[in-house]
Amino acid sequence: MGLTKIIYRKSFLITVGVFLIIAISAFAGLSRISEKPSYCVTCHYMTPFYEKWQTSSHNKVECLKCHDYGSWNAMANQFKFFAGTSNPRPRAEVKDAKCLQTGCHSMRLVESQSTFKQGILFDHKPHFTEIRGGMKLHCASCHYDMVQGNHLAVSEDTCFLCHFRKNGNKDFAVTGCPSCHGAPTKAIMVNGKLFEHRKYLEKGMKCEKCHLQVIEGDGSVPSDRCFFCHVDRGGRYNDVEFVHNNHVTKKNIDCHRCHTRISHGKIKMAYNL
After folding, report:
1. Dihedrals φ, ψ of 194, to 5°?
2. Is the pLDDT higher at 209 or at 150?
3. Cα dist. 151→140, 155, 236 in Å?
4. What are the start-end ranges of the H helices in the chain?
5. pTM of the predicted model, to two decimals?
6. For residue range 139-181, what is the model confidence (pLDDT) as tens digits?
């Protein structure tokens, strides 16, 4: 009887040992596989994201360099998948520390001033280090995914949303026109005649005297957009401070996940003054 127990215990220990070796090997193999960007598309519906990454300026940077997702996450999601509780729609988050790590964009706040699309003057430092509109902005607040078909590109739509909506959607930016772009320095052709902005600005004429309408859209938040993420959870829809703090400051969710777009340009002009 004692010999039988010893044999049984040995068999049990051998079985457990073999199982552990297999599990550890599988875990190690999964760790190596899950580090490859091509692994992500095997489970998540993210082919467009993956394809845009392949042709982007970040295509030499592997996903896990920016996204927090390890082997434990992969294993947990496998259990969720078999349990029928997994969400196949990815909502990736990139923390500021990932962007500003050594060898990436660590000098961005030092060399913070740059010229953006359409001659827009931009300074990273005040946007990144100061509270703006009651919110702490992040890198991903402007550099968000799938903008105009690019991976981590910046759209000026984000600028327009903040600068015009915070001014009550009036036809001039809350910080004024010169804060983003100055007047043309050269004479331009208007209705077949040369026009010099400088002469009129020196007389104190305001931009909106001629540029009657420079925006379209109001940047509103349709309440039904909440239900893309939340089910029957719109009780704090009107609590703007709470919503911004939890979605922008804490979760890095891009603005246009909730807001409609505001377009900005020379929409309606006054030609006869």
Report:
1. -75, 135
2. 209
3. 12, 11, 32
4. 2-34, 37-40, 47-54, 63-66, 71-83, 96-99, 124-129, 139-142, 156-165, 197-202, 240-244
5. 0.69
6. 888 887 654 456 677 878 888 888 888 766 567 788 888 888 8
**For residue 244, which amino acid is it?**
H
Distances from the Cα of 263 to the Cα of 36, 160, 209, 217, 218, angstroms: 38, 7, 20, 6, 9
Token match 């919110």: residue?
A: 135
Of the candidates 225, 64, 91, which has an alpha carbon nearest to the alpha carbon of residue 145?
Answer: 91
How many residues in total does the chain contain? Answer: 273
Residue at 56: amino acid letter: S
Give the single-character DSSP code of 143.
B
What residues does each domain of the chain span?
2-87, 97-269
Q: Which of 145, 122, 118 has the alpha carbon at shortest distance from 56?
A: 145
The answer to whether 262 and 215 have CB atoms below 8 angstroms apart is: yes
Place of tokens 């060399």: 111
Per the CB < 8 A criterion, the answer to whether 112 and 123 are in contact is: yes
CA–CA distances in Å: residue 236 to residues 82, 172, 223, 227, 246: 34, 30, 11, 13, 11
For 148-215, the DSSP string reads TTBSS-B-HHHHHHHHHHTTTT-SS-TT-GGGT----SS-EEETTEEE-HHHHHHTT--GGGTEEEEE
